[in-house]
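Quick log. Single chain, no ligands specified.
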Amino acid sequence: MSGTPSPSSPRRDHPGEQAAPDPIRLLEIRERALSVDEVFAAVGDSAAGGTALFVGTVRSHDNGADVEGLGYSAHPTAEAEMRRVAEKVIADFPVRALAAVHRVGDLRIGEPAVVVAVSCPHRDEAFEACRRMIDDLKHEVPIWKHQTFTDGTEEWVGAGTGSGNPADA
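-> predicted structure:
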């Protein structure tokens, strides 16, 4: 062995192989439409070899029922909780840049509800970090979804609550 790293085990002593000093570029909960381009641009980094982007959209059905309408509500601490989640991701991965935005208010079928992007030195890290960010955001950040179905029924779904109803939080 010559001591030269193989392509599958990159050297980690170069600054570009490590997390950026301040990788959180955009974290926001907003009432206006989300822009995939804005989130993607926010994670641009010349040291990143991989960028993973996730877009969660409002679908026309859920659990076998047709969705008529959907609205999101967020607890006042939601952005702070989103930052906490992002900081955990950054602690576990060499994140060069991270951005996440989540929509609140009434949304139409097909509209983006959440956009998350992460850039890292390598693609596997970017995929894993992006997956962790969206999964933890969905499970830990107090954002609730209120769905109305075409049959007249409705339900609340959200982070960390039994029913998802913000009144139960």
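Residues 42 and 89 are 17 Å apart (CA to CA).
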